[in-house]
Structures are given as C-alpha cells and as structure tokens.
Automatic annotation (TrEMBL):
A cellular component term, taken from the record's GO annotations: plasma membrane
Pfam families noted in UniProt: Xan_ur_permease (PF00860)
Source taxonomy: Bacteria, Bacillati, Bacillota, Bacilli, Lactobacillales
Protein name: Xanthine/uracil/vitamin C permease
Topological type in the membrane: Multi-pass membrane protein
Keyword Lipoprotein listed: no
Keywords linked to the UniProt accession: Cell membrane, Membrane, Transmembrane, Transmembrane helix, Transport
UniProt organism field: Bombilactobacillus mellifer
Length: 451
C-alpha cells in the first residue's frame, strides 16, 4: 500500500509539473523550494515592521503577508508551473509607509483603499492580456539587461544586509567594519557557498545558509528562540479595511497614489519575471511560455493581499536562489508556499534567518545572474547605453522600476537616431512616455520617491 501510494504521488507530481520533461527531480525541486523560502522568509518580519510604522497592526500584517505569499506561490505553481515565488514586495511597502502615509499625511486605511483599487485594475489588465503583450514586446537586449541588473541589485542588497557595504557621508557607500562579528558571519557564508559551488555540490546555497545559521547560533551572534510554536495572529485589525474606505478615492490625490502603485507593481513584476526566466532557461524565442498564467497568479495574490491588509505582492528576486540550486518547475513554488503555511505556526523559528544568513546567498546568486551580460550587443551603442542604464540604474537607485525606466527613456530615441526606427515597436514608444509621466509624478510628490 505504501509503495502504491508513493507511486501514485510520484505520478501526480510528474503529470502536474512535467518533471522529466524539465530534466529535474522531486528532491531537487523541494530543495530549491526550501532555498527560496529561506532566502525570502525575512519578508514575514520586515513587512510588519515597515507597515507597522504606518500604524498598522504588526500581527495582522504578519498573517496577511504569509497568506498572500501562500496564495501567490500556489497559483504560480499550478497555473504557470514556474519556480518563481510571490510575496509582498519591499519597494511597495516602503512607498506606502514613508511616501504616502508619513509624507503625504494620508491615513493607512485610505492608502490601503488605493492599494485595493490598484489591485483590481492590475487584475483586469492581466485578464485582458495587456501585461502579457507589453512583456513580449520588450526588446531582447533590454530583457538581458534586466536579468543582469537584478543580479547586481540583489548582490548589493546582500552586501548591504551582510554589513560588507555601509552608508558613507562622503561617497554614499563604503566598506563595512571588519571589527563587527556579524560581518564575519556573512563572509563565512560566502566562502562556504562559493567553495561548495566550485566543487559542484548539489544544494550548495541551501547548505551554506544552514551552516551560517548554525554557526551564528553556536557562537551567540544569532539568538536562540525562546519558544518554537505560536498561533497565527488574527487579521481582524486589517482585513477588508481597504474596501470599507473606498470613499477616499474622491480625493484626486489618491488617484496619483493608485497610479504609482499600479505602474510600480506592473514593471517590478515584469522585470523580475523576465530576469528570473532568463536565469531558469524558461525563455523561448524571446518570449515566456505561460506568461499570462504567471501574471494572473501575481494579480490574484495582489488582490487577495489588499483585502487581507498588505501592500502589493510581486515576483521575488530571491527565487533566483532556488533556481540556482536546480528549481525548474512549479513544485519549487508549491514547496515554498507550503513552508509559508508552516511559518504561520512556527514564526519564532524564523528569527534565526537573519540578514547575515541570507546575504551570502544573494551575493552568490547575483554573480550568477550577471552572466546574461555576455549576450547583449555591446558593439551597438544604441543598444549598449540603454542596457547599461538598466543594469546600473537598478542597484544605484535601489529600485527595479527605475532601472527599467532609464532603459526605455533612451532605447527608442537612440534606435531612431541610429536609423533603426522601424525596429522599435509602438509599445516601446508608449512605454517611454509612460515612464516620463511616472518620473514626473514621483518628482512632484512629497519625498519624490517610491521606495
């Protein structure tokens, strides 16, 4: 009976996720899902912290964060069969708190109404396949640049989170202090992962992260949880608040907020999906198979999150860690979603996943993702400059959308100047004007920032 059950389960996974076709195994996919989860688990604590600064209940946001991630990951698994996880995005929650609530003086309840409306519009655009058409129309060189830019971006996040790069008044950034013990914990993790990868050990990134966490616990740099199990906090303080405050949309200022949330979510997810698809080898003839299903999974999770009480969800760049250890199908994201279910009851355990544990993985994966640079047409300046601006813009502005904007503000004009105007599609011209409007709106809003 046990063997029969195992055979049936194996057959179900094969039929659902086409493991043989993708040349992967159940064990490899589960390892990838674990790696992705460990890499992005920080959002369970970072999101409540950021939204809590806006006055939202942290416990409710914690639960809303986990459930929206579960919905997004499982929809991505079964609808699109992609190893790309979904959870509330960092840039959106920072814009919500610091630019909308604190700078503009809009209550978090009204701001959440703006998120809900943006989510509805987002879902409609996905259903009408507008997002799919736009992503397919993005030139190949810019798609490659997005992948490399995201690689540099997440490497920079890792360097910063691990303490190797810090703020510097005279030069903006500088090297971190080597007298800080946690910085050496990051360095230890980098070397462990790098050595394992050089020796081609399967699951190198995940093993390295576990080793880093264990060392941190042993030497006291990571606190041992006082208890292991806790009930999931109630979402009652935030559930449905956005819907009950829709009257706030009578204020024209709120529609600017809606537009920003819509555009940022649109291009953050588009850029991340393209970059991760390049890394995973999903792209076919410059297009992503089942992109419509992937975008619908993202849209539905964003809508669900706005109802429960969290800011827009997004495809997660940390999925690159799971892809790097071999994740190729939706079984990876199914595993990640299942672990988010467990996290609802084992939240104290997740406190051991500190920045120093995730930083080495992000740095190593960033190095892997910049490999797409080799396929960009660097000998053609009209392509090289927009690609460079995308790549440099993401880490230097600390925002994926800004990097994409820099590329589209220059690509159509330079292509036309080079006598290649006929190669530029109408969508590229449209996006150029969209980003001009977006940057103008951001400039006239308080703080002039979305992240």
């Amino acid at each position: 009976m046990e063997t029969g059950t195992g055979t049936f389960f194996q057959g179900f996974l094969e039929r659902t996720f086409h493991l043989s076709e993708q040349k992967t195994t159940v064990r490899r996919e589960i390892t990838a899902g674990l790696t992705t989860f460990v890499s992005m688990a920080y959002i369970l604590f970072v999101n409540p912290s950021i939204l809590g600064a806006a006055g939202m209940n942290k416990g409710a946001v914690f639960t809303a964060t986990a459930i929206s991630a579960i919905i997004g990951c499982w929809l991505m698994a079964f609808l699109a069969n992609y190893p790309i996880a979904i959870a509330p995005g960092l840039g959106d929650n920072a814009f919500f708190t610091y630019s909308v609530v604190l700078a503009m003086g809009i209550s978090w309840q009204k701001a959440m109404a703006g998120v809900f409306v943006a989510s509805v519009l987002f879902t409609i655009l996905s259903f009408l396949k507008v997002r799919e058409i736009v992503i397919d129309a993005i030139p190949q060189d810019l798609k490659l640049a997005m992948a490399a830019g995201i690689g540099l971006f997440i490497a920079f996040v890792g360097l910063q989170g691990g303490g190797l790069v810090v703020a510097n008044k005279s030069s903006l950034v500088g090297i971190g202090s080597m007298t800080v013990p946690t910085t050496w914990l990051t360095i230890f993790g980098i070397f462990v992962i790098a050595i394992l990868m050089a020796r081609k050990v399967p699951g190198s990134i995940f093993i390295g992260m576990i080793a880093t966490a264990v060392l941190g616990l042993v030497i006291g740099l990571i606190k041992t949880p006082t208890h292991w199990v806790s009930a999931a906090p109630s979402m009652q303080p935030t559930f449905g608040v956005g819907i009950t405050h829709l009257s706030a949309l009578a204020d024209p200022q709120m529609w600017a907020v809606v537009l920003i949330f819509l555009l940022v979510a649109f291009f953050d997810t588009a850029g991340t999906l393209i970059g991760l698809a390049q890394q995973a080898g999903i792209m076919r003839n410059n297009k992503m198979p089942r992109i419509g299903q992937a975008l619908m999974a993202d849209s539905i999770s964003m809508l669900a999150g706005s109802v429960m009480g969290t800011t827009p969800t997004s495809a997660y760049v940390e999925s690159s860690a799971g892809i790097a250890v071999g994740g190729k199908t939706g079984l990876t994201t199914l595993t990640t979603g299942f672990l988010f279910v467990l996290s609802l009851f084992f939240s104290p355990l997740l406190t051991v996943v500190t920045n120093q544990v995730t930083a080495p993985a992000l740095i190593i994966v960033g190095a892997l993702m910049v490999s797409s640079l080799r396929d960009i047409q660097w000998d053609k300046f009209e392509v090289a400059l927009p690609a460079f601006l995308v790549i440099a813009g993401m880490p230097l502005t600390y925002n994926i959308s800004y990097g994409i904007a820099f590329g589209f503000l220059t690509y159509p004009l330079l292509m036309a100047a080079a006598g290649r105007r006929k190669e530029v599609n109408g969508i590229s011209w449209t996006l150029m004007f969209v980003f001009i409007v977006l940057l103008y709106i951001l400039n006239i809003m308080p703080n002039g920032t979305m992240a």
